[in-house]
Amino acid sequence: MSERFLTAYQAANLLGATPGTIAQWMRSGQLPFHCLPHGPRRISEKDLMDFLKNRSAEILDQTAPTEAAPAAVSPPADTPAKDTASQLVEAIVGDAVARRATDIHLESQPDGFALGLKIDGAMHQKPNFHRLPRQLALRLTARLKSLAGLDAAECRRPQSGTFRQSVADREVTIHLSTLPTLHGECLVGRLCDSDTAPPTQ
Hints:
Blueprint: E1 5-6, H1 8-15, H2 19-27, E2 43-44, H3 45-62, H4 84-98, E3 103-109, E4 112-119, E5 122-125, H5 134-147, E6 159-167, E7 170-181, E8 184-193
Antiparallel strand pairs: 1-2, 3-4, 3-8, 4-5, 6-7, 7-8
């Protein structure tokens, strides 16, 4: 079967990015492209998927816990590998706990997905997080809603739920609320120690 090629516009539509962003990635050499005999420069589907994987790993590195956070324990060899969305949830919650954040804010924006941590009453944005591809951001949103027992397909009305996440030797309860916005959904997670968290209704 022949390899499938995409234009910058098709790639932008797939990633939820602008064609200008795709062109910038191509010019900088981050995203390989092919000059075919006829038509605009093309991106192979395989190169685009490799780029997505590499960019997702970069985002995970940028949202990983700081030095103050406990080191992650390697899972046993027979443990199945977790998907990227699950790893991203663990990284975000671990980072929030390490920074003593009280809230995690995830907001869909026209150019990507924004992450903010509320620490000592002040919101701290993680500026590189908007680079997260929209497809992965939607998977992250669906994963969080699934963990909280919410309807992952429902994005037109507010929802709320609770789930627990283990961070090293500590268990954290996260009260998740969703709110529809113009560009997608806004998710807010309130972090509480499981021993002191209020009971769910």
